[in-house]
Amino acid sequence: MMGSFVKFQIFLLLFVFTLSVHSEEKQNSNPPSVSALPVEQDSIKKEEKKTEFILSQSLANDVFIFGNSLYGERLSRRNNERYQPVSDGLILGTFVNFVTPIPGLKINLVVADPLVGRNNTDNDFFYQSTQGGKDETEKVVRSIQGNQIGYDPNQIRQRKENNGLRDYFIGQIGYEWNTSIGQFSTGFFIINSNNYPTNTSAMNYTFGWKPGFLAVVKPEFVSNYRISSETNGLNQGNSHHRLGFSHEFDLSKDWKLTPGIQSGFQYFNNNTDRRTGVTDITAKVQVNYSFINFSISDVYRPSLFLFDNDRAFPKPSGVSSDGNPEDGKVTDPSKIHGTANQVAAATIQSLSLDPVTKDSLLNSYQQQHLPKHHIVFNVGYMAKF
User: Fold this and answer.
1) Measured in whole angstroms, how far is the alpha carbon of residue 369 from the centre of its chain?
2) Rg (CA), the chain
């Protein structure tokens, strides 16, 4: 999945890229000056040191790309917690923007490192012969009831699942040029991660346009076209398009306020479901003080059916199944595993009702609506070298 990949939908990552590029443009608009230092009868020209790259880092509670949560929803599944509008994750993002000697050529590298939930943990509480394997708890129960071990305790035991959060690595290379109708950009965007349940390795061709008109609200349109064929081509051939507006207010010499809004549209979420719609409408307010910045974003996902599938939300190993993959409801991670949930599910299944009614009751207990709003906090800094 692009989960993964694929909440940087890329709002959080693209916005920081834009901020870094904007800062870089200011740097390039004033080329290094040459000053003459008189030394007796001769003079020495000394060139100012030119910025080689821009480093920025930030801490956030989640990351969204094309409307997909990269960490918050994975953390909820790992911790057996209900999906929430505000994730309690903590992610360190490191952004390096290289200033190349070729005008207009941009090279950006991003690493997103989760600081919580990195280790694997046992969250299904099953007795299994392999990690993530079949539930063989019944063999243990029968052995206890019969007062005789009927299984190999070295083989069948509780095991940790492969559910630790992993790093995301993102690379972007692009070229920008100015025309009479605005600034155009083109390049490639690559994202890679080995997060469970599927590894993410996606490559997109990007094309962007910043019109020369309406400069006060900085309109920007970016299209991303998937050209990679990982996961047997599941996500190949789709495209994602984003339109954004923002305006920077200079409050004082050091203080700046930048409100903005972006919207994303997905043409085919994957080659299996082939669903099309608006991935997100993201409103963001950022405050800059000197080299420090703070922002808060509201990621609104109006078309939840785009994400209601096994690629975004893997089927749990419990007894519930998603009977309607377009209703925006998925299995609640907090209602599947553990003794209390197993007793509740067994009680529902033992009722003297028809199967349809029992399935409806079970789904009512074990499923939840996906949150439509997600609040993302971000605090960071930027430095030039």
Assistant:
1) 20
2) 25
How confident is the model over 51-89, as pLDDT tens digits? 789 999 999 999 999 999 999 999 999 999 999 999 999
Separation CA 370–CA 27 (nearest Å): 43
Q: Name the phi and psi angles at 382, rounded to 5.
A: -140, 140
CB atoms closer than 10 angstroms to residue 97: 24
- Can you count the helices (H) and strands (E) in the chain? 6, 21
Give bridge partners of residue 14 from the DSSP assignment. none
Distances (CA, A) of 77 to 101, 271, 304, 337: 46, 25, 18, 11
Please give the helix or strand (H or E) that residue 168 lies within, else none. strand 168-179
| CA dist 74 → 118, 124, 313 (Å) | 11, 15, 9
pTM here is: 0.83
pLDDT tens sequence across 84-117: 999 999 999 999 999 899 999 999 999 999 999 9
* 290/255 Cα distance (integer angstroms): 7
